[in-house]
From TrEMBL, chain A:
GO terms for cellular component: cytoplasm. This is Sarcosine oxidase subunit beta. GO terms for molecular function: oxidoreductase activity. The keyword Oxidoreductase applies. It comes from Humitalea rosea. Residues 6-351 form the FAD dependent oxidoreductase domain. Keywords: Oxidoreductase. SUPFAM superfamilies: FAD/NAD(P)-binding domain (SSF51905). PANTHER family: FAD-DEPENDENT OXIDOREDUCTASE DOMAIN-CONTAINING PROTEIN 1 (PTHR13847:SF287), SARCOSINE DEHYDROGENASE-RELATED (PTHR13847).
From TrEMBL, chain B:
Gene3D superfamilies: BFD-like [2Fe-2S]-binding domain (1.10.10.1100), FAD/NAD(P)-binding domain (3.50.50.60). Residues 1-313 form the FAD/NAD(P)-binding domain. The keyword Oxidoreductase applies. PANTHER family: ANAEROBIC GLYCEROL-3-PHOSPHATE DEHYDROGENASE SUBUNIT B. GO terms for molecular function: oxidoreductase activity. Keywords: Oxidoreductase. It comes from Humitalea rosea. This is NADPH-dependent 2,4-dienoyl-CoA reductase/sulfur reductase-like enzyme.
Amino acid sequence: MTTSCDVLIVGGGGAGCSAALHMAQRGQRVILLERGLVGSQASGVNYGGVRQQGRNPAELPIARRSHALWMRMPELVGSDVEFSVTGHLKLARNDAEEAELIAYLDTAREHGLALRMVGRNSIHRDYPWLGPKVVAGSFAPEDGSANPRLLSSSLARVARLAGAEIREHTKVTGFAHDGRLFRLTAEDGTEFSAPVLLNMAGYWGGAVAAAFGEAVPIKPLSPNMAVTEPVPFFIEPNLGVVGGNVYLRQIPRGNIIIGGGHGESDVSGGRAWARPLPEVTLEMLGLAVALVPSLVGVQVIRSWTGIDGQMPDRIPVIGPSGTMPGLFHAFGFSGHGFQLGPGVGAIMTELVLDGHTDVPLAPFRIGRWRDAA
Amino acid sequence: MRIAVVGAGPAGVRAVQTLVAAGHRPAWLDEAPDGGGRIYQRPPAALNRDAKMLYGFEAKRATALHDTLDAMKPRTDWRPDTFVWHIRPGVKRLQTLHRGVQAVVDYDAVLLCTGAMDRVVPVPGWTLPGVTTMGAAQIALKTQGCGIGSRVAFLGSGPLLWLVAYQYARAGADVVAVLDTTSFATKARAAFGLLRGGATFAKGLYYIGWLRAHGIRIDEGVTPVAIEGAGSGVTGLDWRDARGRAQRVDCDAVGIGWGLRPEAQLADLAGIPFRFDAIQHNWVPERDLAGRTSVEGHYLAGDGAGIGGAEVAELAGARAALALLQDAGAAVDAAEAARLDRALTAAGRFRVALERASPYPAHLAAGLPDDTILCRCEGLRVGELRAAAAEEYPAGRAPEMNRAKAFTRTGMGRCQGRVCGAAAAEILAAALGVPVDAIGRLRGQPPVKPIPIVAPPAEAVP
Ligand SMILES: Cc1cc2nc3c(=O)[nH]c(=O)nc-3n(C[C@H](O)[C@H](O)[C@H](O)COP(=O)(O)OP(=O)(O)OC[C@H]3O[C@@H](n4cnc5c(N)ncnc54)[C@H](O)[C@@H]3O)c2cc1C
Ligand SMILES: Cc1cc2nc3c(=O)[nH]c(=O)nc-3n(C[C@H](O)[C@H](O)[C@H](O)COP(=O)(O)OP(=O)(O)OC[C@H]3O[C@@H](n4cnc5c(N)ncnc54)[C@H](O)[C@@H]3O)c2cc1C
């Protein structure tokens, strides 16, 4: 038996769940198919950075759009998913890095992103716990962090209430189009059909695109993460560095979450296995100590990673298919799509239902590698 | 061939002995300052006392094991005080920490003999100062020569309950009550099977008889109500007896424990599949009788591979070492392997009876009041986990353990669920109305226990 609807979504990460909610709110009969539980891949295990600062300028309009949704989160899903506007402080450890921070100020201004330099004189006065290696910083007051474990499932819950069908433990293995409708087959044989298909399958979005004849150069990306035991709260902003080889934040509970470098993964044969690498963990802890020397002696209680899809130019694929009318892609967020997820769901809904969106999507078109070739 | 053995308890010692006898020089790691494992843990040199006094009936076995341990140290790459915090089965590498220094040990085959830890059920008041696990109470006595209090009550079930109570009473503590949550009827039903255990069973009866003869208050089939305390510690223990009557003793310390659970985090990180053992009521790594697993080059022995006790651990260590040698193409003594297999099979049958005589009191965990502290690392209460089983939960209903952890932080603290995990699973399963093995188990990640952040070496800082 085939279940038919208006819109099928493959992938229940932050982006897919947001799309299900926005589609349902506009009266669409929407079914989201998720292989595991919603938010069980990148969207549920990431660092939790909700950051606009430092993004590729092409992404900033989406990030701005998403920021507005993050600010309305309690209204949208009934809880704040621990989103907190702590500010994001990006640090420079030498002159060259400082110059890079200064250069980004113009980009930020163009896109209406608030950003303020914290110079050599004030950085250690304002943040006395920073180590001597730090020479300057730039502070984004609107940025912050949230709890990734809550976002997708909270969106999914309200999407259900709005009428969306969220099917977990449903892995799509068959992708076809009969000339009129998309026909998807799940591993257990269940079939689904709809005139519109949204590919929001994260790293595996590459396989979905390939099934419709538009393979893209996507690779798995596994940022290496660790968390410490709780210690008295002292690090208010979400911290990053130029170059991104280490980042850390402290939650009010006291735990410090530290990221940097990459772990390993195995995505062969449909697997979704990923592990942090111990030498990378140790290296990033050393870099973290250089930023915040008082971390020495604090216990690390867990390390982990996940799998995101990385594109060669480190920005996602978003927009209509180049081969198949009715197919729309949004995947390959290249390690920074948690902040974008809510906005992407809204944008995709406009793109499909209104035929256009205010956010410029040209940089993200799926044909960009073919154009180049 | 590079062989590594993790753990120098009964299983690890006998494994190493077997490997050394076959001409190998394994890397041998234990996080403790010396070998011996849990039951035969040695006191620091300055506190050493007579073996008979430390280990009682087990003194001969303890001495024998320690002798072998000491004899093996120079014949192996012996690394005490070395914590193995991660294992990478793909590249066959152990990640170790020794006095703040990180190192790796590469292997072709590894034998994990990581032992067990106490299994608890939260009781209202269990986080008060003065409440410890039964095993910790014993270790305090054994290695530090001190008790957990002067008026001590013990609450739990299983062989350690009677043994530790006996050891405390012998050491001069005022043991004010020994409370068994298992009913007399349950134990009586298992008695026939227990007879197979011969000496082990007889020792258990001896402890109980001794405690009774010394007029120590014993109550069976109890339901714990609360450990009471005032600011600075424990003041009493309340329970209901088998007939439902309220009972109480004054005490200043309580030892609690309901059997053991495997310390199987390295086996988990090694990618060895786990199964729920309904009789032990534990998730255990899958292995065959000889300790082979489905992950090539990875072997398991002792309590870390499923609770079997110290004697079984010795047999299993030797057997797993033979399996490892066999798989490496060495000629091994087939008769010895067969003898060990027979002994392990027989011991396995006794174990089933022992577990039946002191089953994990799942109903006590599932029935805990909402306001009892469940996850002590995170200070979370039972009701906070229970709430995640409801449709109306803000992040949606948590249908399994990892999701419930993700939503509520249960098991997300320093111990990563090693302490509260078993009870948390019962609470969630009961709230969802499904069997406990249907909600999975907490996923493991490195480090298997916390590791400190250290300052990077000066020259490494650019
Ligand atoms: C460790 C880590 C740290 C990160 N830190 C940050 C950060 O701090 N800030 C930030 O902005 N971003 C961060 N990111 C990136 C961010 O998490 C991702 O870009 C984002 O979550 C991607 O969302 P998604 O919905 O595209 O993919 P996912 O969350 O991966 O969702 C895709 C879903 O599709 C499902 N699926 C795939 N194939 C199928 C199929 N055939 N059938 C059914 N379902 C299928 C998957 O199971 C998955 O649940 C991090 C990523 C990782 C891994
Ligand atoms: C607290 C406690 C008290 C007990 N008391 C008794 C008793 O009185 N009588 C009785 O019959 N049984 C007792 N038992 C059970 C008994 O200890 C076990 O049955 C027996 O010790 C099992 O032997 P083993 O070699 O498997 O493990 P263990 O003796 O536990 O040895 C495991 C060894 O591995 C080491 N280890 C574990 N993980 C790592 C790691 N990641 N890195 C490095 N080293 C590691 C440990 O330090 C330990 O030395 C007790 C158990 C516990 C937990």
